[in-house]
Amino acid sequence: MVVFRRALRLDHMQSSSTMAATAAAARLRAQGHTVIDLGAGEPDFDTPENIRQAAIQALETGKTRYTPASGIAELKQAIVDYMARETGTTYPASAVIVSAGGKQTLFNALVSVVNPGDEVVIPAPYWVTFPEIVAFCGGVSVFIPTHEHDFRLTAAMVERVLTPRTRVVILNSPSNPSGAVIAPEDIHQIAELCAARDLWLISDECYYRFVYPPGRPFSAAALPAALRERVLVSGSLSKTYAMTGWRIGYALAHPDWVAEMTKVQSHSTSNPTTFAQWAAIEALRGSQDSVAAMLAEYRTRRDWIVSALAALPGVRCRMPEGAFYAFPDISAVLEKTGLRDVDFAQRLLEEAHVVVTAGSAFGAEGYLRISYANSLDNLQRGVENIRALIERLG
Ligand SMILES: Cc1ncc(COP(=O)(O)O)c(C=O)c1O
């Protein structure tokens, strides 16, 4: 009998709870049930036609071999041009690395800079993967709860948790799971704090394009050069262009940081998939109409679901300014029934085949994350089932 002993560095790493929700949905489907999956952080749209065609053309013209580990020069240039259009900042190619999704970008970024014992500041609620990568690095996640402050992170809140061991501050605006957007002035002040204390700032801008009017996207790439030097901007094509399965993300950062990340990548996955890189050029350079269309559709759904959730007994739900998640506070329901948010999510799954993710997975007990990257029809059925469960619980 062989006993498997995992490496110590994985002792504090948990499996992804959002991926577990997706797996639970797949299991129920395999048993023949109709599942309403409001758990997945994945656009329900197809990848736009022009991007699919670009991939087909890349395949047919032999774009199937290894590329440089950090990505093809043509895509790096497309990223540089895209960021220049969006933010007015022109990065050199040496400041760009393309990876297999934003997740790999962030993994590369953190393993390149976090030493055992280093503290990494993470506003909560947070995307589940941040603390897990920090744990893998032997670092210590220092959370800043924002739910008591309407999910608004300020520089003062960051300053309060900084210690001599702090190495990195992570921002994620718009946020997964809350959809909250950090004000540009606050990002500016947080970058100043990082500059004053010789810290690195990671700005995860995976949902950058999904900010609802009258709000406007803001990238940390637009910060003044002296502050930007210590900022790593992490971007992804996954959500913006409905390209989750293509696995293309990128970082813009100090060239020395990029060089270390490239080293890690060259010994792990090598390059991101070659034909996906070529298609990504079309995504960034081609028509952006599909992004505007998706944003408009998400906005209609957001407006509907937030008011529908807020109308449920014992539920409060703030209007998210970005991304595609509603994050209702169900603590009053839980208090009355003695359930935890995970129990509520589990019962919803078992009794109604509706998948949502418990807030505690994101460091915010008492909430649910509901992805509205799903049809209005399914959202309506999902909310009706939540209402029915609340009523059953009395
Ligand atoms: C906040 C955040 N960052 C990064 C990612 C990574 O996405 P990908 O690896 O598909 O680019 C996700 C995906 O859910 C996310 O929600």
Automatic annotation (TrEMBL):
Assigned EC number? 2.6.1.-
**What cofactor does this one take?**
pyridoxal 5'-phosphate
Q: Which GO terms describe its biological process?
A: amino acid metabolic process
Note the InterPro entries from the entry.
Aminotransferase_I/II_large, AspAT/PAT-like, NHTrfase_class1_PyrdxlP-BS, PyrdxlP-dep_Trfase, PyrdxlP-dep_Trfase_major, PyrdxlP-dep_Trfase_small
Q: Which Pfam families match?
A: Aminotran_1_2
User: Could you state a single Gene Ontology molecular function term?
Assistant: pyridoxal phosphate binding
SUPFAM superfamilies, per database record: PLP-dependent transferases (SSF53383)
User: What highest taxon heads this organism's lineage?
Assistant: Bacteria
Domain Aminotransferase class I/classII large stretches:
34-386
Keywords per UniProt: Aminotransferase, Pyridoxal phosphate, Transferase
Q: Which family does it belong to?
A: Belongs to the class-I pyridoxal-phosphate-dependent aminotransferase family.
Which protein, by its recorded name, is this?
Aminotransferase
- Species this protein is from: Chloracidobacterium thermophilum (strain B)
